[in-house]
């Protein structure tokens, strides 16, 4: 039996070994795949205590200092993508644990596409319409209740919060649908917005006047909870809020209360505070939401880049020549 043990964590899709050739690694080490969340810190520590290396899928599992301290054999961490706020890289470095990452593949393009899938699904009431038809109802939802008429995007305002690489793609697509694009972020300039065919406005105006608001900010201490009860209350009863970035951008608890109050009228979400989404989550009881299970990056080309990147990084580490090593700050 191989003495080196490598854990692949949170492979919900069963894709890690299917989208990359791990045969060389498996000749030199034992590879164990965990296809379900490990749960609490205690459960993760127990499951991973005898592993030398762990491979992480994005931010599905946190690696704080408290966990690292309980993994005596750990010498290597590699996560998919190019940043991971859930890994305490500084604590890892202090313990002599090398941290690496992978190429991201077409993550930005795929996330922008998922954003538009949700915008269209929300605007056209597709989730309710599909569920109603399957339940035997014509133009009613799964309970036989009516739902608001779909709306047309042309001529409406699209508010983009964060005009980075993904927000830019979303904004440009909005223009092709004939929408007026508004934009806001802390450091956005009039020139940057205008170069992309958008108009920079205040945060208050964006939320108050946009038919569709889409969030595209990186989650940080500065942006956590940046969309609060006040912003949501400004949204119109017929508006749509879309979030394919991070759930933490919205103040905890504010969205459920706002949706229950009817402002915004609908939300289309791909990201959640706890993932996988618990069966008792309050969002699941609301009729005015469209939900997808964090599919923005969960696509074939992205996973191929991710898992080939994991295999490549693990192989290099086994050779004693780790690649893409993160420098702790």
Could you walk me through the main structural features you see in this protein, from its secondary elements to its overall organization?
The chain is α/β, with parallel strands linked by helices. It folds into two domains: 5-106 and 299-318, Rossmann fold (3-Layer(aba) Sandwich); 107-291, NAD(P)-binding Rossmann-like Domain (Rossmann fold), CATH 3.40.50.720. It has helices spanning 23-28, 41-48, 65-68, 89-94, 107-123, 126-134, 165-176, 190-195, 203-209, 229-234, 254-261, 300-318, and strands at residues 5-8, 30-33, 53-56, 76-79, 98-100, 157-161, 180-184, 199-200, 212-215, 240-243, 266-269, 289-291. It is built from twelve helices and twelve strands. The two termini are 38 Å apart.
Q: How would you summarize the topology of this molecule?
A:
Elements: E1 5-8, H1 23-28, E2 30-33, H2 41-48, E3 53-56, H3 65-68, E4 76-79, H4 89-94, E5 98-100, H5 107-123, H6 126-134, E6 157-161, H7 165-176, E7 180-184, H8 190-195, E8 199-200, H9 203-209, E9 212-215, H10 229-234, E10 240-243, H11 254-261, E11 266-269, E12 289-291, H12 300-318
Parallel strand pairs: 1-2, 1-3, 3-4, 4-5, 6-7, 6-9, 7-8, 9-10, 10-11, 11-12
């Amino acid at each position: 039996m191989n003495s080196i043990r490598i854990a692949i964590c949170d492979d919900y899709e069963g894709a890690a070994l299917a989208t990359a050739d791990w045969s060389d690694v498996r000749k030199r080490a034992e590879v164990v795949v965990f296809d379900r969340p490990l749960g609490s810190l205690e459960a993760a520590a127990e499951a991973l205590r005898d592993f030398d290396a762990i491979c992480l899928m994005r931010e599905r599992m946190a690696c704080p200092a408290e966990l690292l301290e309980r993994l005596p054999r750990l010498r290597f961490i590699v996560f998919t993508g190019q940043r991971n706020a859930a890994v305490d890289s500084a604590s890892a470095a202090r313990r002599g644990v090398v941290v690496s990452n992978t190429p991201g593949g077409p993550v930005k393009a795929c996330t922008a596409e998922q954003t538009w899938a949700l915008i269209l699904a929300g605007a056209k009431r597709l989730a309710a319409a599909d569920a109603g038809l399957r339940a035997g109802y014509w133009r009613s939802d799964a309970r036989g209740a009516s739902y608001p008429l779909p709306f047309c995007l042309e001529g409406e305002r699209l508010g983009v919060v964060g005009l980075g690489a993904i927000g830019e793609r979303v904004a440009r697509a909005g223009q092709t649908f004939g929408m007026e694009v508004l934009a806001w972020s802390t450091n956005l300039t009039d020139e940057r917005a205008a170069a992309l065919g958008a108009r920079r406005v205040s945060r208050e105006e964006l939320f108050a006047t946009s038919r569709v608001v889409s969030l595209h900010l990186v989650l940080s201490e500065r942006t956590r909870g940046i969309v609060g009860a006040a912003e949501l209350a400004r949204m119109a009863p017929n508006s749509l809020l879309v979030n394919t970035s991070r759930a933490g951008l919205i103040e905890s608890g504010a969205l459920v209360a706002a949706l229950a109050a009817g402002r915004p009228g609908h939300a289309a979400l791909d990201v959640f505070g706890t993932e996988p989404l618990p069966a008792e989550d309050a969002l699941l009881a609301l009729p005015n939401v469209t939900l997808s299970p964090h599919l923005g990056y969960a696509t074939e080309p992205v996973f191929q880049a991710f898992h080939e990147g994991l295999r490549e990084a693990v192989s290099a580490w086994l050779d004693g020549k780790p690649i893409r090593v993160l420098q702790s700050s």
